[in-house]
Amino acid sequence: MRLGGRLAAAIEVLEDIRARHRPAADALRDWGLSHRFAGAGDRAAIGNIVYDALRRKRSAGYLFGSDEPRAAAFGALFLEWGETPETVKAALTGDRFAPPLLSDDEIGALGANRLEEAPEAVRADVPDWCAPFLEARFGAGWVAEGMALSARPPLDLRVNTLKADRDKVLRELSGMNAEPTAMSPHGIRIPPIKGSGRHPNVQAEPAFRKGWLEVQDEGSQIAAALAGAESGLQVLDYCAGAGGKTLALSAAMENRGQVFAHDSEKQRLSPIFDRLRRADVRNVQVVPRPEELAPLEKRMDLVLVDAPCTGSGTWRRRPDAKWRLTDRQLEVRMAEQEKILAEASRFVRPGGRLAYVTCSIFPQENVERIDAFLAANPGFNPVDHAQLFESRFEGKSGSARIDPAKGISLTPAYSGTDGFYVAVLSRAA
Ligand SMILES: C[S@@+](CC[C@H](N)C(=O)[O-])C[C@H]1O[C@@H](n2cnc3c(N)ncnc32)[C@H](O)[C@@H]1O
What we know:
With 429 residues, the chain is of the alpha/beta class. Helix content is 43%, strand content 14%.
């Protein structure tokens, strides 16, 4: 397929996403199933246009003065692919699969509308209702944070130190432009790929099959490290899901001590068994049923709550979620977070720690939940987060927003990671 066919396909997928309010990944998969002739390169390029269009939807809409999928798709090419109206015209002319060429009106709008003059929420590419939350959290820098959340993400990997070290994995991945991450000592980064390219399928690599690495954003690696799992501890991973953090905790513990991996949704835990086996993890017990947790009450050295959240810190990777999110869903998440913190805290032993993590950038899901928990639970106190960060990531404190009493925030603009929040509380002895 040439650019025109790919662009037409992307517009079709964007129309499907809009009409049926469905996740981008589902719409792309269905398109692929009904267009089996399309090769891997075509699918990657179409996916890139769709995801770029969703990331920069408001900017593109402003430039064209239109909210139509066509504007978003063409906009992606101009905003992210380095194309111009002239290069796109040249590429599309004579291609019978291409969408109609830009009209005089569209070209006129592009010439007249200047993004620098657009409202802040448009430049930040965020929904209007979310803008006040970003402004409350990041002050004058909030537009830059929104813009960074609208850029393509890198592919981050965590080296499984139970089986390999970073140099060994970097040698295995040579030729993939892989580099050590700036903060996580076990992280590897493959920078964002430009244009129609795509990241290598690391899951097909022998190193992955041998359990030497996991796909995990550097922010998630940092959050797991800040939780403070150490060799020999008794740890409860209360919202373990597919086990991304569980595996990181176990590696930090060098397979010694015990991690109990729980999730209220049993099916979410199902990938964990294969992952544990592949990674050679031997100190994890998966505990799906809440009643089986009863003996652990007040016994855990560390309880990790990797809470369900809006995922606003991961908008680079799931830009469709940015537009589907509603204020009602945010409220539901906040209530869940409050309930889970209350439930999970029962398992912390006197003198033990409770680590709360979200991949959200909204203060309502982060510091406000911790403030509410602390107000209701005077037996818990925040650790000194500045000291905590420095103890784990010596000399790197400039890459995180740290409030000693309120927690640690990571963001794409400030830290080069997905958006994460971490607060660690200790229970009075
Ligand atoms: C952010 S995800 C966890 C991701 C996982 N820790 C990882 O690193 O791959 C949040 C998880 O919390 C689970 N959850 C939601 N409500 C819960 C509850 N009341 N108790 C325990 N887990 C819950 C969800 O099923 C979901 O898997």
